[in-house]
Amino acid sequence: MGYGILHIKNNKMSLIAMGSIELNKLDNYALKLKKIFERTMYLINEYKPDEFAIEAPFLGKNPQSMLKLGRAQGVSMAAALSKDIPVSEYAPKKIKQSITGKGTASKEQVAGMLKNILKLKSLPKHLDATDGLAVAVCHHFQLGKPASEKSYSGWDAFVKQNPKRTKS
């Protein structure tokens, strides 16, 4: 499972972190879900994102795989929601189209475009990491201006528009 974390300032993206959560060494599926939740919580606590985007579940050839993927995505979403971080979902075709202009692009094509868009010197060994990064870039492109860059007329306007981000 890949992830990508971006910093957006003045509508410009810069890469903060990208990687993948390695689950191959765990045999028990429940333990894999636990690790996904713990790693997602670690990333949230470490980087304190304002928004969270994830690839929506999709039906492939094997319904059992879709069920497992949906559970993994749900665990990750629950981690974000437990910290009151808004969650957005994007279909795989939407992500590919947003990055490459073609909804049927390969993982390699998406990775190559991300390398150009973010001016990366190299790509990670596993394309799961660039898949996660692609979701973050797609989210930025779809919103045009992330919530973290909204402008407010003052503290009262911020509190009114963000009740869960302030404590009384």
Q: Would you mind describing this structure in some detail?
A:
Helix 1 packs parallel to helix 2, helix 3 crosses helix 5 and helix 4 (107-117) packs across helix 5 (127-143). The strands form two sheets. The protein has a two-stranded antiparallel ribbon with strand order 1-2. A two-stranded parallel sheet has the order 3-4. The protein has six helices and four strands, in the order ββαβαβαααα. The longest helix has 20 residues, at 63-82. It has 168 residues and is an alpha+beta fold.
Supply the key terms.
168 residues; Nucleotidyltransferase, domain 5; two-stranded antiparallel sheet; two-stranded parallel ribbon; 4 strands
Radius of gyration: 17 Å
Categorize the overall geometry.
globular
Mean pLDDT: 87
Count of helical segments? 6
Structural class: alpha+beta
Order of strands across the biggest sheet? Answer: 1-2
Architecture in CATH? Answer: 2-Layer Sandwich
Helix content: 40-55%
User: How many beta strands in the DSSP annotation?
Assistant: 4
CATH class: Alpha Beta
Strand content: 5-15%
Q: Spans of 5+ residues with little confidence (pLDDT < 50)?
A: 145-149
**CATH topology, which one?**
Nucleotidyltransferase, domain 5
> What's the CATH superfamily, by name?
Ribonuclease H-like superfamily/Ribonuclease H
Largest sheet: 2 strands, antiparallel
Following the backbone from N to C, one meets helices and strands in this order, namely EEHEHEHHHH
Alpha carbon gap, first and last residue: 37 Å
